[in-house]
Amino acid sequence: MNPSARYDTHQLRALDARHHLHPFTVFKELAQKGARIITRARGCWIEDSEGRRYLDGMAGLWCVNLGYGEPRLIEAARAQLEELPYYNTFFQCATPPAVELAAAISGLLPQGFDSVFFASSGSEANDTAIKAIWYYWNLAGRPEKKLIISRRRAYHGVGLGSGSLSGLAPMHAPFDLPLARFHHIEDPYWYREGRHLSPEAFGREAARRLEEAILRLGPEKVAAFFGEPVQGAGGVIVPPPGYWPEVERICRRYDVLLVSDEVICGLGRTGRRWGFETCGFTPDIVTMAKGLTSGYQPLAAVAFGPRVAAALLESDLEFAHGGTWAGHPVACRVALETLAVMEERRLFTRAGSSPGKRFARRLHQLAQHPLVGEVRVLGMLAAIELVADKRHGTPFAPEHKAGIRCRELALAHGLVMRAIGDVMVLAPPLVLAEEEIDELARRAEATLDALAHVLRQDGVWP
Ligand SMILES: Cc1ncc(COP(=O)(O)O)c(C=O)c1O
C-alpha cells in the first residue's frame, strides 16, 4: 500500500499544521492556509494529493537535474541498500562508494583538486569550508587571518557560519547573526543597482567593492571570499562579464582564499560542469550539493584545491570535524550513478547547447511583456523580474505582493515557479525536453497575462 494513502489531503494538512515546522515559513500563516501535499512525480512533472499536475520549473529546489523516476538512480540506491546500507568513514574506515565518488569528483575539477570531504547539505559543506579555512590559516602560522567576506543577497545556507555568509536580511536579525568575523559587500546586480553604467563598467565597480572591503578590514586579517558564480536564491543575479576574473585578481593580490559555492551552479546548471568555468575564474575551494545526487539523496562535498589540500594533508593535527553521514554509501552510490548518467547523456553541457539556447530564447521573449523589467538567463537558470513601471524599472510596492501572486497564478496554470520578492525564478530539470521548454514558456506567459489582469482589477497597475 502506498503509505501516503493512509490519510486523505484534509487529514494530512491538519497533521502538517499541527506537528510539522517547515523551513523559511511563517508557521501560523501556513497552518491557516494548509500545505500543498506533493505525492508523486515523473520526469519533469510533479503531482499533488488532489491529482493536479505541475511542470516543475524549479527541479524541486534547484536539484532534480535528471528529473523524477530515473530508473538508474533508483536501482543504484536499491543495490547499495542491499549491499551495505551504512557504514561510517570515521576511525580509518572507508566504503567503496565514498572512495569512488571522491575520485570521480576530483576528476571533474581542475588539476590539483584532489581532496574531497563529504557532508550532507550545502549548509554543512559551506560550514566545513569555513572551518577548513580557519584551520588552514592557523596551520600557516597566520592566526590573525580569519575574516570572511561574502555578498548582499548571497545564499550559502543556514548554519551559524553558512547563515552568517548568507546576505539576506530575514536570516540575520532574528537569529543574532551574522557572527563577528563575517562581512558583506554589494552584489553585482546590474538591473537594480547599476543601470547608470554599462554592465561591464558596473561589474568592475562591483568587484572593486571587494578590494575596498579587504583594504578597510586589513588584508592581513582577511581569510577568504565566498561567492556563488550566479547568486541563486538572491534572485538569479547573473554577474556582468569581467566581474569574476576581477574578483579573482583581487583575491590573489591580497592573498585571500576564493571559494566557489557551486551548490546550485555546479554540475551543468550554467551550461558547463562548473559555474566558475562559465564565469571565468579558478577558486581555491569548491562546495557542491543539490545536483550531485539529482536530489535523490542528501549529499554535499567540499573539494580542496592544491594549496589548501597540501596543508591539510601535511598537517600532524587532527581535522576534528565531520558527521555521521559523511560519505554515506547510499548517497555516494546514487551520486556516482548521477555523474555517470550526466556524462553518458551529455547533460553537463546540455544547458549550454541547443536546448539551453531554446530555453534562453523562449524566456527572453517574455521580456516584451509589460510587467517584465528584465529577463536574466544563464544555462538553465533564469529570472523574470516583475516591475510596476517597465520604462523606469520601478518595482511594485511590497504590499502588492506581485511575486507571491505570480507564484500562485503559475501554480493555477500548472507551473512551479519560485518568487524571490518580485523576481520569478526558474531552474528546471536539465533533462527538460524541447516541447517542455515551449510548454514552460507558454505557461509562464499565460501566468503573466493573468497577473496583469488581477493587478489591474485591484487597481494597482494601469
Ligand atoms: C548556493 C547555495 N549554497 C548553499 C545552499 C544550502 O544548501 P542546503 O539547503 O543543502 O543546506 C543553497 C541552498 O539553496 C544554495 O543555493
Number of domains: 2
Contiguous low-pLDDT stretches (5 residues minimum) are none
Quaternary state, please? single chain
CATH H level of the largest domain: which superfamily? Type I PLP-dependent aspartate aminotransferase-like (Major domain)
Largest sheet, spatial ordering of strands: 4-10-9-8-7-5-6
What does this structure look like?
The protein is of the alpha/beta class and 462 residues long. It has 2 domains: 36-65 and 348-457, Aspartate Aminotransferase, domain 1, CATH 3.90.1150.10; 73-344, Aspartate Aminotransferase, domain 2 (3-Layer(aba) Sandwich), CATH 3.40.640. It contains 16 helices and 15 strands. The chain has helices at residues 9-19, 27-33, 59-62, 71-83, 96-108, 122-139, 160-165, 190-193, 199-217, 243-253, 275-279, 306-314, 329-344, 354-365, 402-412, 434-457; strands at residues 38-42, 45-48, 53-56, 115-119, 147-151, 182-185, 222-227, 257-261, 285-288, 300-304, 372-378, 381-386, 415-416, 418-420, 423-426. Strands 4-10-9-8-7-5-6 form a 7-stranded mixed sheet, with helices on both faces. The chain has a 4-stranded mixed sheet with strand order 1-2-3-13. A hairpin with a 2-residue loop joins strand 14 (418-420) and strand 15 (423-426). It is globular and about 70 Å long. The termini are far apart. The model has no long low-confidence stretch (mean pLDDT 97). It binds pyridoxal-5'-phosphate. Residues 121-123, 126, 155-157, 228, 232-233, 261, 263-264, 289 line the site of pyridoxal-5'-phosphate (PLP).
